[in-house]
Amino acid sequence: MSFHLKLEDARKAKKSNLCIGIDPVSIFFKETDSIPRKYFEKGSESDGMKKFCLDIIESTSEYACAYKINSQFVLPFSLKDLSEITSKIQSKGCVSIFDLKLSDIGTSNESAIYWIKKAGFDAFTFSPFAGNLEETIRLARDSKLGVITLALMSNPSAKVFMRDSQINGKRGYEWICEEVKKHAGDGVVVGATNNQREMLEIREIVGNETVILIPGIGKQGGDLETVKAAGESILVNVGRDIIYSDDPEEKAKEYFKMLRRI
After folding, report:
1. Does domain 3-261 have CATH number 3.40.50.300?
2. Rounded-to-integer distance, Cα 75 and Cα 87, Å
3. Domain boundaries in the chain?
4. Which residue, 48, 59, 98, 103, could crosslink 40 as a Cys pair with Cβ 3.0–4.6 Å?
């Protein structure tokens, strides 16, 4: 089954557009917005991090249809660890996205896709700046993986390339979205910290079926009106505000209800 169909099934079954971002920060790295110390009382540091991820999925999956695993935070994990996490996500009726921001030459991308599939993910994020978007989408499709391309991120510094730069007379994000549409990519990443006009433009370019993955709600202070402008085929990612709250289940429920309202 394609990523698009898996995601549609999950969204309908859960009646949810919530994607929970799992960024497991070890307390030995920093003490704020990090995994509680109790997770490190037994076993290794990476064991505690994995247990935290599994517990977050267990406690919040009633309200989410997807989970996004940030590759920068799971570097200590083995392929077996990642497989255990993706299996847990899928057992709860959700899809798993590897937030890798893949960006390299074709053979390197092909290798990454092989291991992403081995780890059990349903999709991954892709950075278009090294090129090879068409090839990457084709390779991913052969492996039944989705590709979600960075278009206009929530990071303020990303605007230099994605909004202010010109490519063939078009703003960066316009050109990226046109390429995603041209090559039938599965989705684009557009931060809720951007404005409604930009979101409406992007939706018009990529069409109604393309998923828009929207980070920036929660700690980054993104605008819910921008989320609303994205239409129906969306995944709204919330990470730290859920996973490091005193009650992740209740916080996930709050976001679920909020997204249902808009």
Report:
1. no
2. 18
3. 3-261
4. 48
